[in-house]
Every structure is written in structure tokens, then in C-alpha cells.
Write a structure and sequence with these properties.
13 strands, two-stranded antiparallel ribbon, 6 helices, alpha/beta
Length: 269
């Protein structure tokens, strides 16, 4: 398969190297376009007011991998790859392996998920991979699962373009319970801004949010499903797979809102 890989941890991050090398070893045609530095939590930002530069990167990945370093955001990287750098349209867009989980509401901020979402916007099935640890650097288990998942998609393609958000526990393979299809959960933080003073005497603030791990499980009233959330399934040592889409319209209550709007009368400017 022809695979386009990106991330938000930067071109020299160990996660992208583990993913690209594992898939190249499996015989896939792998192209990598990543930010030239860490661009975590940039969401779906695009570079509009300055040029984007891309340079070939040698001697970092498997010899069969074609790689570029890009001055833009993760979304820039995928756009640039699809419309300027690659000769052929990829079969899949992959993002990661991110150093840290992308769960629940965190996906709204994630550069990793946004890079993969860019593929879906262009009608290309996509997968975002994340290792659920900010400290451990053992990516081999996550890369091995990615290789297995991509092989499964090659044998049995997804029925329609969809983004699969995958989180892998930072555990040895024998301690992983299994694979769970999960719905998006909730991660809440106590957002604390630390007030500091720089050497010139000017005030600045540093975001130091504290994660509330024990968020109460929320019933999914929209889909009426008893599937676990990605947060709870990962906590129980499952690899989680959550299908995502870019359409944020809340379908439940849409008709009620239309009726409410019609009842408030006509608006005049």
C-alpha cells in the first residue's frame, strides 16, 4: 500500500521513525512529511501568512522511505504532501506514533489527530496512532500493532473513508488485554495558569493543567450504545479504536432546534 505518514512530535521523533520503519519493512511504499519541530496541541491550524518550506531528510528512516521536513503545522504537512510533494495519491494517511495518548476531548486539540483528519477531508481513510505514555519511549509494541492493523485494512478495506483514532497502552504485549472498539470519552482538566516573571521583569503565564483521571462515565444518548469510552478501555489495558469524523453537527435535537428557531419569529438586521 502507498502510505503517507505525519505527526506533531516532529520529524526526528522516535514514534514516527518506529512507525515508518516497521511499515517499510512490511513492504509498504512509505512517504513521511512531518513538522521540522514539535507542534503538539496545534489542532487543525494552517499556515496562511508566511511561506511553508519543505526539505528532504536523509539517513533517518528505512532506506526505502521518502521523507521531508516541513516548516508548517501537522495539517500543513499533509496538505503539502497531497498537493505538492507526492507523485501519487496515498491509499492511507497515518499520523503518529504520538508520544502520549489522544483520548476523549483531547482530540480537539491534537495535532496528531488533525493530521489524520486532513486525509479524511480529502476522502482518504486515515489512522492516528498514539502511545499512552508521555515518559516511556518503547514504541515497538505500538508499531507492531500498527503493522497488523494496516495489513488487516489492506486485506479488508474500510467500508468508507473514516478516521480511526488508535491508542496503545505503554505495556509489554503480554499485558495488553485485547482490542476494544470504543466511543470518544471525556477528559477534564483543572486549567491552572502559573504566573511568572521573566528576567526583564515582564509577566508571563504558563499553562499547567491538572488532569482529572476519574471522570464519571457518560452515557452516550446519541447512539444508545453500551460501548466503553476510549478513556475507560485504555485504563483497563485495552488497545482502543475509535472512529471519528470531521462533521461536528449534533444530529440529535437538530429538528427541535429548527422548531425553536421558527418559533422566535423573523429576524431583521
Amino acid at each position: 500500500m502507498k502510505l503517507l505518514l505525519s505527526n506533531d512530535d516532529g520529524i526526528f521523533a522516535p514514534g514516527i521513525r518506529a512507525l515508518a520503519d516497521a511499515l517499510a519493512d512490511a513492504g509498504h511504499q512509505v512517504s513521511v512529511v512531518c513538522p521540522d519541530r514539535e507542534r503538539s496541541a496545534t489542532g487543525h491550524g494552517l499556515t496562511l501568512h508566511q511561506p511553508i518550506r519543505a526539505e528532504r531528510v536523509e539517513s533517518v528512516f528505512h532506506p526505502a522511505v521518502k521523507a521531508w521536513s516541513c516548516s508548517g503545522t501537522p495539517s500543513d504537512c499533509v496538505k503539502l504532501a497531497l498537493f505538492a510533494l507526492l507523485d501519487d495519491r496515498p491509499d492511507l494517511v497515518l499520523a503518529g506514533i504520538n508520544h502520549g495518548p489522544n483520548l476523549g476531548t483531547d482530540i480537539l486539540y491534537s495535532g496528531t489527530v488533525s493530521a489524520a483528519m486532513e486525509g479524511i477531508i480529502e476522502g482518504i481513510p486515515s489512522v492516528a496512532f498514539s502511545l499512552a505514555s508521555y515518559t516511556g519511549g518503547e514504541f515497538h509494541t505500538a508499531a507492531a500493532f500498527a503493522r497488523t492493523l494496516i495489513a488487516a485494512i489492506a486485506q479488508r478495506p474500510l467500508p468508507e473513508p473514516v478516521l480511526l483514532n488508535v491508542n496503545i497502552p505503554a505495556l509489554p504485549p503480554e499485558e495488553i488485554v485485547g482490542v476494544a472498539v470504543a466511543r470518544q470519552g471525556i477528559r477534564r482538566y483543572i486549567d491552572i495558569f502559573e504566573k511568572r516573571v521573566d528576567p526583564r521583569g515582564k509577566t508571563y503565564y504558563w499553562l499547567a493543567g491538572e488532569l482529572l483521571e476519574d471522570v464519571e462515565e457518560v452515557i452516550d444518548t446519541e447512539t444508545d450504545t453500551d460501548l466503553p469510552t476510549d478513556v475507560s478501555a485504555l485504563r483497563n489495558n485495552y488497545i482502543t479504536i475509535t472512529p471519528l469524523q470531521y462533521n461536528l453537527t449534533r444530529s440529535v435535537g437538530l429538528q427541535d432546534l429548527a422548531e425553536w428557531a421558527s418559533s422566535v419569529g423573523k429576524w431583521k438586521v
